[in-house]
Amino acid sequence: MVPDVQRIIESIVRGDQDTVQILLDGYNNQYADCFFFNTEVQERKKQQQLEEFRKNKVRDYAPDSASETDSGDDEEPDLLLRQHLATALLSFISSQLQPAVLRVCLHTLRILSRDRRALGPMVTDSALLTLAHLGGISLQQACPQQDEDQAEDQSARACSQTGRGAACSFEEAEEDDAIPSSAEAASTNGSVHQCCPWRAEGPVMLPRGKKDSWEENSEEEEKEEDGEVCRKEAMKVLCNVVYNSPRAQERASALRLLQGLWQSVKQGVWSREVSSGQFYKLRLLFLLTALRPELRLQLQQDRGVSVLTTALEQCLGVRWGEGYEVLRESTALPISKETSQEVIEILKTLFNITHTFHRQEPDEEDAALYRHLAAVLRHCLLWSCDEDDTTEEVQGHTVNILSALPLTCLDVLISVHVDQASHRCGGVNMDCVHTLLLFMDRRLNRSQKLKEKLTPVLNLLTESSRVHRETRHYLRQKILPPLRDIAVRPEQDTTLRGQLVRLMTHVDTDLKDCAAELLFVLCKENVSRFIKYTGYGNAAGLLAARGLLNGRRNSGAGLYASQYSSDSDSDTEEYREAKGRINLVTGRVEAEQPDPMEGMTEEEKEEEACRLISMINRLSQDQIIRPMGVTAEGRLAPLWGQMRGSTLEEEEDEDEEVDLMPEWRKDKQME
């Protein structure tokens, strides 16, 4: 049976905590996995619209999304009840509650926050402040002039309010950077909300002799667990609200939510304390920096890269060797699921604040910071997680950041010690490059979101091959080995080369250009070698864009040409024997075809040529095709002059009704 929402609201108004807990437990169990509360209503409306369409054969309006179907139904009773329930709960959790009651209330708010239409009560300033404080985020620093008596009063008030928070002592309160007062959570209508103060993430400094009594107090431990659960629930609600509401994103920025959140995250990092609630703080940090561009700049200016790099080191248990080398243990256990989730959130936030760095020329200090980050990312790329899907997700986010860092800082990926188990090329460690190659191979076999999944790794391998000779040699060995099977068209090959060549004719221009650019760089930007491995038909797009259709390398095409070594002869015996029979357009040896003009006289051949020219002229005149030619600079240019002249001659001949017979035929008739 669906719980009676109106009864829940009445119990909240009366302040009957026991009844509220029982009713909300039933409500939460009912809607635990529900993301659309009005599913039946939506299905009924869709069915009505379908019947109307069948009857009238007209569809006046097609909504963009399922949620937009009911965007104007503010009078819907169920929706109004959910909004009233959210309003009542937000006021209720600001009062003094039992830990179990607070937990179930926050769980209900988390369920309600999934419905974008019911978010109205949760996007107010007072609601955001309340949720932030319950989640352990302080939005106001403690006043330096505040005397000890006031601080002690705040700590005592905090302890009296929390059966729901962590056990507070005056020693703990002194270490907190900020203890929120009740005035901070004042609502817009002037009422005061006494919010649950948060406990600092840092370690608790206890006087000598109190540690044993702390451990023996099971009641205090239960309160600590309840407080941690409540903080996690509040952060979940806050994440949902910020993600689903642009208004909440705007108010969060205005209320300086990022500053308080960042202070809390930094305290967790510097204290090295493992906290289960840290994940949701990192998730909210990612959402704020992803949805509000101005917050990315703020975090970047507040040493965001350095702090998040330190957090990443702690999650991975990094041990440093010489220089920028991170030591690896062959017997190291895979990353746990909980740790990998934190790593993913850190990586996503790092990308938000570093995605423009590749356009900048870093100074000495920034270069050292980025090399330090690249070394940690290399370690992250080579580490494995408990699940293969999680490992690939971590590697994907790592590749995104690496592709955003300045190229001059990526030398640390290959400048590490070489051991017996390492992949190597020219005495250089290629473990990282090999992992990137395997990652690209897995992504090539995916059919969905190819652009988002492949473009970063293709760009990373391309630019690394340009500036690192050993990387290019290694990738060429794996992607473009010496040709032996000349009978297979390049795009039909099942190897990495074939997969990349197929992308060169993809409908997505960016993806097509990235794949072609990688192969072109692996060929040292040599046109003939590029055509050799891909075929002229597949290579024409990149060659036309670069002005290389004449087969010569132009002066502006090879910015890194000076770094390429001299060309070496890598042709196999099979290729040398079949080289004269290879069709340059298809890139393979074609079976001999019969001559279509065999048996035709010279007169018939000329008539066929005139007919073909006339058809091309008409198609060009109707703008169905656009005949092109290659200029001396190697670029395509329209043949308007020649084709237009031929067309005008034909029109004049048709107007004057002149016989189009060749002169030799007229002379023959005269004879």
Q: How would you sum up this structure, described in words?
A:
The chain has 671 residues and is mostly helical. Among the domains are: 1-60 and 75-142 and 151-202 and 222-248, no CATH class; 440-564 and 577-589, no CATH class; 620-670, no CATH class. 57% of the residues lie in helices and 2% in strands. The protein has a two-stranded antiparallel ribbon. The chain has a two-stranded antiparallel sheet with strand order 3-4. α20 packs across α21 (469-479). The longest helix has 27 residues, at 218-244. It is globular, with a radius of gyration of 35 Å. The termini are far apart. Residues 61-75, 141-217, 555-562 and 656-662 have low confidence and may be disordered.
A few lines on this structure:
57% of the residues lie in helices and 2% in strands. With 671 residues, it is mostly helical. A hairpin with a 5-residue loop joins strand 5 (628-630) and strand 6.
Note the topology:
Elements: H1 5-14, H2 17-30, H3 39-56, H4 77-92, H5 99-112, H6 125-134, H7 148-161, H8 170-175, H9 211-216, H10 218-244, H11 246-254, H12 257-271, H13 278-291, H14 293-301, H15 304-316, H16 337-354, H17 364-382, H18 388-404, E1 424-425, E2 428-429, H19 431-444, H20 450-467, H21 469-479, H22 496-503, H23 509-522, H24 527-534, H25 536-546, H26 573-578, E3 582-583, E4 588-589, H27 602-621, E5 628-630, E6 636-638, H28 640-656, H29 663-670
Antiparallel strand pairs: 1-2, 3-4, 5-6
Helix pairs in contact: 1-2, 1-4, 2-5, 4-5, 5-10, 6-10, 10-11, 10-13, 12-13, 13-14, 13-16, 15-16, 15-17, 16-18, 17-18, 18-20, 19-20, 20-21, 20-23, 22-23, 24-25, 27-28
